[in-house]
Amino acid sequence: MISQLVLALVALPLLSALLIQLLSGTMGRRVARISVIGGTISFLVALVLLIALLSGEDVSRIAVSGPWGSLLFDPLSILMGLLITGISLLVRIYSVRYMAEESGYGRYFLLLDLMTAALLVMVAAGDLITLLIAWHLIGVLLYFLLGHDTRSRSAYRYGFWTFITYRFGDLPLLLAAVALYQAFGTWSLPGIFDALAANPDATSFFGMRVAELVAALIALSAFARSAQFLLHTWLPYTMDGPTPVSALMHAGIVNAGGFLINRFAPVFAYTEYTLHWVFIVGLCTAVIGSVLMLSQHDIKKSLGYSTMGQMGFMIMECGVGAFSLAIFHLIAHGLFKGTLFLSAGGIIGQARRDDGVPKDDLYTFVVERRPARNRQPWLLMAAITLAVPVVVLLLSHLAVAPNLFQKQGAIVLLFFGWVTGAQLLFATYNMRSQNPWRLVALIVFSFTVVVIGYTLISHAFDVFLYPDPEFGDLLYKAGAIDFTWFVILVILATAVIVLGWLRAYYLDRNRRGQWSAPGPWWRNFYALVWREFHVIEIYSALTRRLLAASARINVWLRWG
Amino acid sequence: MQAIGFILVGLFLPLFPLSILFNTVLRRVDHALLRSALLLTWPQIGVLALSLFADEPPTWLLIWALATSVLYAFRLLAMREVGRWTGFLATSAWAALWLPASAGVDPVQLVLYAAAFSIPLIILTLLARTLEVRFGAAYVGLYGGLAIGTPRLAGVTVITVLAATATPLAPSFFAMLNALAVATPISAVMLAAAWLMWSWAAIRLIQGLIVGAPQPGPSQDLNTAATWGYSIGLVGLVLAGLILMGNNL
Predict the structure, then answer these.
(1) Which of A282, A260, A262 is nearest to A166 (CA)?
(2) CA nearest B37: which of B53, B24, B25?
(3) How far is it, in rounded angstroms, from Cα A448 to Cα A469?
(4) How distant, in Å, are the alpha carbons of A47, A81, A207, A376 from that of A117?
(5) Which residue from A442, A480, B123, B182 has the highest number of Cβ atoms inside 10 Å of its Cβ?
């Protein structure tokens, strides 16, 4: 029964796509109903499978035929399947009216269904070949979805950036698959993971450890899919496609990197170094993405960079060994960003009639940038700022994981939580309010609710996705560094952040009410950030040169 | 004797500069059916010659073959004339067949790999002829807008180009996977680089043909029978690939 349901999960969108292709001539725009009905049934099937899994149904691999074409029934595939079918269903329902006046209505739903099928096959793939097929097809289908308006050359131009980055990301996965096949002689994922667990020090080309080599290649592939720095340019620029496609892309497709790293968690568990540079790449992307988001004037580009920053944080979570947390993060971000994209049009329309923004304390502080005239004692506020988040975070995490301090990854994430919480409280210090203590109390309460919710849900994800605590510890261990260095880095980072806050405070107090022009260093830095570090110009120049070189060779060898 | 055997094979599973012969012949043959016959038979002669006259090729020859594949894939990027584009892709793909050949893959499988690359290129040759008849030339970037003006022709062209450049589930995809499964690290990277450039060139070709405003005036799309014919051909190609090559991985 479970096997049939898993097969139905991926077959339904394919069937829907086939029906749309065959019936679009006779049904016209009503073919969208086929897509919506198919999407609803797929979602229900995914829900039933999740309930079955939670009820204790065993994990299994369903082989359709031959060496490939197998699907997995496991927590990761079903959880991701539910997310994909859910977001895809919302996107389809939204598209029914949103795309009604566009040409190629049937083609749009056909591609949407094929994309859903490809995503479901990707998350459920039980062997490397099936995974490679789905991984490759997603890039192709996304290119045509982004270029739905075939008149728009810019949509295709930016769609090409997405396509070529995705293809670039396909190749490391392909090489990883070849390395695994040559090392263990099977394409089956569970077979490979068992063989690797039995012999974690197996070597491959040039005497390199298979786990280390494959993990590095998998990570590179994940970076391209999840728009990590230097492979990110496609994400902020692919806004010329239909809005529902942007929603699907930002809420679902871009998360593929986090999924891939989780799928290969049994490989990453036996690595020594790979997760460290995964962390560094994720951290750089999170910081750079956020900085670029703040500096952009174009709201769509800003949203793109916001996703890039979030993806950086997700990859960073993997880098510290918190794999299940990355899955929770990608689901939370997917739902949040999907809502943002799908509701953007309605909000813009509403805002044209009435902005609806209450002129309260938050508005005067954030929008009008008017700081409070009377403030509370600075030392008291600083103590609250620094201490409260630490207490809230520690208590909530210790409640679910008593061995918290044995996991460096957990400490790193707590550190980020502390910075975020302290920054939030720090901002309230400047806010104008009739009753500042009430404001602080409300913010502390909100922060506590968010932290407790986050902690409990992430713990539930951990138990669901990686029920074996020893395996979870292996992942954290793979992401850990030498303890002395770890302590030094944490102290250093804390000092930098606290000193930064102090500097911001003193600058603010000394310059209160006066505006001073930024210095040349700051202006140059801002220009650099505003120009997105010139990455796009560099890539464009490189592309032009490559094409010119190709044309030159064709001229030299014109005879054949 | 062995050297002569390798030269003979190098003409038909083209090694640069011997590859110039195939591309010159293909350019001079104007008739679509003759071009199709050439695309189908040329690599098969190479596979036959390999099994008859040549032993396992040395490593340097393998690297040379893959360098040829990369060179023609790179040249493909700037090629706008669809006929020559077909020739360059054929050269690049057939040169890559030296890799499974050197690993001792069954000659019957090699015949299938060669056909997996040839058949989509034959369909593309026929489509290029259709473009020449309708627009005077099969040239990327010259007219564009096929997606709106002639949607059936555009759809079939897109799928054919994707099938020719080893997109799943085309048989050429499985041929590439089979080749990679027996590759050394260096040869795998070279083959992967060629594959990346095929995809890049494919998108440039597709974009140059289908995107943009349609040509003014009426343009004749593929008729229903031709569309069904091409569609059945492509679906048959995929099914044959799945049955004959997908299960041999």
Answers:
(1) A260
(2) B25
(3) 27
(4) 16, 10, 39, 57
(5) B123
The helix (H) or strand (E) run that includes residue B108 is helix B107-135
Q: Is B81 helix (H, G, I), strand (E, B) or coil?
A: strand
pLDDT digits (tens, 9 = 90+) for A496-527: 888 887 787 777 777 665 667 778 888 899 99
User: Which of B78, B177, B207 shows the shortest C-beta gap to A160?
Assistant: B207
- ipTM of the complex model: 0.95
Structure tokens that stand for B14 in this block: 């083209």
Which CA distances in Å does A193 have to A73, A211, A215, A558?
16, 10, 12, 51
d(CA A384, CA A452): 19
Do the Cβ atoms of B211 and A137 come within 8 Å? Answer: no
Burial group, residue B69, by CB count within 10 angstroms (0-12, 13-18, 19+)? buried
Q: How far apart are CA A114 and CA A16, in angstroms?
A: 9
> Quick check: A167 and B200 CB within 8 A?
yes
User: Going by C-beta distance under 8 Å and a sequence separation of 6 or more, which residues neighbour residue B115?
Assistant: B40, B44, B171
For A83, A233, A306, the CA distances from A327, given in Å and listed in that order, are 11, 24, 18
Q: What is the pTM of this model?
A: 0.92
Q: List all residues 6 or more positions away from B149 whose beta carbon is below 8 Å from its beta carbon.
A: B214, B215, B219, B221
Dist CA A215 CA A315 (whole Å): 13
* Residues B186, B59: Cα–Cα separation, whole Å: 11
Residue A60 DSSP one-character state: E
DSSP label of A203: B
CB contact under 8 A, B203 and A164: yes
The tokens describing B102, both together, are: 């050197």
Contact A178 B199 (CB under 8 A): no
Q: Closest to A178 (Cβ–Cβ): which among B169, B188, B212? A: B188
Q: Which token pair is A135?
A: 């991984």
Q: Which of B45, B84, B93 is nearest to B197 (CA)?
A: B93
Residue of chain A whose alpha carbon sits nearest to that of B193: A171
**Angle A423-A427-A433 from CA coordinates, rounded to 5°:** 150
Helix axes B185-210 and B171-181, enclosed angle (nearest 10): 160
Q: At what angle do helices B32-53 and B107-135 cross, to 10 degrees?
A: 160
Asked if A205 reaches chain B (Cβ–Cβ under 8 Å), the answer is: yes
CB contact under 8 A, B74 and A167: no
How do the pLDDT tens digits run along chain B, 249 residues long?
678 889 999 999 999 999 999 999 999 998 999 999 999 999 999 999 998 887 788 999 999 999 999 999 999 999 999 999 999 999 999 999 999 999 888 889 999 999 999 999 999 999 999 999 988 888 888 888 999 999 999 999 999 999 999 999 999 999 999 999 999 999 999 999 999 999 999 999 999 999 998 888 777 899 999 999 999 999 999 999 988 888 777
The pair of structure tokens assigned to B182 is 């027996």
Q: What is the distance between the alpha carbons of residues B5 and B51, in angstroms, rounded to a whole number? A: 10
Tell me which residue in B145, B192, B249 faces A67 most closely, judged by beta carbons.
B249
For testing the chain B interface, which of A165, A171, A204, A208 should be mutated: the one with the most B CBs within 10 Å? A171
